[in-house]
Each structure stands twice: as structure tokens, then as C-alpha cells.
Amino acid sequence: MIRPTSRAVWLVAAxxxxxxxxxxxxPALWPLWSLWNVIVFxxxxxxxxxxxxxxxxxxxxxTPGALxxxxxxxxxxxxxxxxxxxxxxxxxxxxxxxxxxxxxxxSAVLDxxxxxxxxxxxxxxxxxxxxxxxxxxxxxxxxxxxxTRRLGPLGIVAPALPDVLTVRExxxxxxxxxxxxxxxxxxxxxxxxxxxxxxRPYEPGFDPxxxxxxxxxxxxxxxxxxxxxxxxxxxxxxxDTGRLMADPVHGLPRLDHAVNAGLxxxxxxxxxxxxxxxxxxDEAPGVYVDASGGLRTMDRLxxxxxxxxxxxxxxxxxxxxxxxxxxLRRRSIVVILTDFQDSTTAELMVERVSAMARRHVLIxxxxxxxxxxxxxxxxxxSGQAINEALxxxxxxxxxxxxxxxxxxxxxRCVDAEPDDVSARLINHYLEIKRxxxx
Length: 438
Prior knowledge:
Layout: E1 2-4, H1 6-13, H2 15-25, H3 31-50, E2 57-61, E3 67-68, E4 73-81, E5 88-97, E6 106-110, E7 115-121, E8 127-139, E9 145-151, E10 156-161, H4 164-175, H5 178-184, E11 195-201, H6 213-219, E12 223-228, E13 234-240, E14 248-249, E15 252-253, H7 254-271, E16 275-281, E17 285-292, H8 297-306, H9 317-327, E18 333-338, H10 347-356, E19 361-367, H11 370-377, H12 383-408, E20 412-416, H13 418-435
Parallel strand pairs: 3-10, 13-16, 13-18, 18-19, 19-20
Antiparallel strand pairs: 1-9, 2-4, 4-7, 5-6, 5-8, 8-9, 8-10, 11-12, 14-15, 16-17
Helix pairs in contact: 2-3, 4-7, 5-13, 7-8, 7-13, 9-10, 11-12
């Protein structure tokens, strides 16, 4: 479709002052207005004939293998003009169906050769993302006319998966840290871990409780027992998919923050020799992936996490955790990724989690909304702001009460904002490994 641009409209409108001036000077000059219009329309027609024609441009959209929630992925658009095509700036815009951030238009300059232009697509939720059509727009050499072309339907469907790339990057960073090395390799702090590694001569600064007196008597010098973290533990990731987990926090649903934190822990746990599984629940038990070891387990966990649905049902902790407890025959590290509103609605949750903590090592992860802390820290500017701060303070106090009850029951609690939840969760896991608490 070809249409005049705003520049052409202004040129046509500029003929009115020309006609008015001609009539004021001399009525015989009125044909100047007609001449002006003829010149302008001639320029418009010339621009239309000289502009890039659709047949002179070949367009191909490269299908992305997969998209990742919270990470912009480039969709490559290949533009190939023929030899007779004029130099042209082309604007491109994708039509997308799915939970994605509104895509921005991009531009590319065609100057005789093929051009590849990336268009970023940022999924906000997991699921299928449909690339329906591509819009192209360019102007003539003098900018008096513009042509719009729609390419489609493209029929491209890309799955939006958990952000595995971020998980791997964070995992590699953790593997290089000192705390991680001490948690998974034999060179450990003496007295940590539960598996015996070796004896070594005592040196000042070692824990005296690690001295092995029988070996010391036989060797006639003090020797200490060195331990390392036990391997082959079972780590079960338990993901709440109820109504609260669908609320957006920092641009992503809580559920996706929980999935990313859980997958990062799984990635590290598998490399320590542990076995990792995953399950979900809302009003009823959902996905269940039995704990297994090996690097291929990560693909199974990512596939299962990608299928976790956003629901609007209330979470039934009693039903979900009881079903999981019946499946776990062996003492395990159970990581519950969830959130709650107040102490009243969390009563059954506390009861069930506390009962489960008698058999297993539990890490309870609550993903805090940053708006709660910012609302408490902001100085009140009006009476309504004071009332809102009081409500937030009540919610925060009830939240801390629930977490204290869980801690008294032996549950390790992580109450953190999305940016901090992964690091704090991993620290708890390494501490459990270091102390041999399983």
C-alpha cells in the first residue's frame, strides 16, 4: 500500500499561502496556485515510481529455536534486495501473539547487498509464542510517499522456556567461587561434612575435635580426621503453582522466579553428585519427576518446568505436600518454592511443612515482593500513604511471624526478593552439605 507522507501533505498545504499571495499582488497570478499543485503532484508521482518495489526485495524470517522467559532473544530478518533496488531505509515490526513485551520497530539500510536485522523478542511468561506477521515500511528517495508491506502469515511458533542461559551463567560463576569449591571438593574445612576422607598431621588452627586419638597413638603424633560432603543426596524441588505465584514481580511472575532459582540449584546439585527431582502442586498434586543423577537429568527438569501452568486456584499445601511425603521413601533435601499472604491463610501450610521437617531437611523459599519493603521505607506524604504503610507493616509482621514458626520447627527459611533468592538458597544448600545435615 502506497500513501503520501506528512512531508507531501505539508507541500500541498504550502500552496494555499502561495495562492493567497498571488491574489493580493495581482488577480492575474492565480494560475500560480495550480502550477504549484502540478509541481507537487509531479514530485509525488516521481517519488512513487523511483521507490523500492516489493518485487525487488526478498524477505526471510529465521525461526528461533526457543525463547527464554525474561531474556530478549533476537529473531533474525534477512533482507536481500536485487541489483536494481535503490538505496532505501526499511522499518520492520513483528506482530506477535503471546505473553511478550511489546516489540520495538527496527530499521535497516539497503545499499545493494543482503542485510540481516535482529528484532528482540522478550517473553514475559512461559508458553507458545506465535510470530504471526512482519510489517515493512519504506519511503521514496525524497520522502514524499511511503509503502507498507505485510509479510504473513509467518506460521512461526517458538516455545518460551525457563531462562536456562542465565542459570548456566550463574552456575558457572558459583562453581568458581571459594564457598562452592569447599562445599563439593575434598579440600574442605576440617570437621565439616559427614564422609571420612583422609587423615593428616595436626597443625595449629585445626579443630581439636577432629583429632583421631587412635591414629595419633599409632603414629606417635597428632593426626586429625578430614571429612568431605556426602554425595548422592536426594534434592526435591517443590514448586507452588497456585494463584499467588502468578502475580508479576520485577516484570516476571513469581512462578518463573521460583523456577529459575530451582533450576540453578539443580544445576549445581547435579554437579556435586546429588540426585535431583521436581514436583508441583496447587489445589492438587501436579507434575512429578523422580530424583535422578547425571547431567541429562537437567534436560528432564527443564522440560518439566517449562510445562508448569499458571493457575488461578488456591494452593492446598496439605494435599500437595502429603502426596509428596508419601513418595519420598528416603530422607531428602526438600526445597519448597512458594509465597503466602498472611498468618491466617498460612496456618495449614505451617502445620504441614513442620510435620514434613521431622523426616526431611526442608528449605522454605518465599519470594518477597520488593514493593513491600519500598512501601515501608518510603516517607509517608499523605494520610492515605500512612494508612497504606500501616497495612504493609501488618503484613510484614505477620510474614515474619510465620517464618519464625517454621524456623522453630527446624525449617531453613529464605525470605528474599527475586534478585537475592538464588544466592541465599544456594548458601543454605551448601551449608547443609558442609555440615552433613541430611
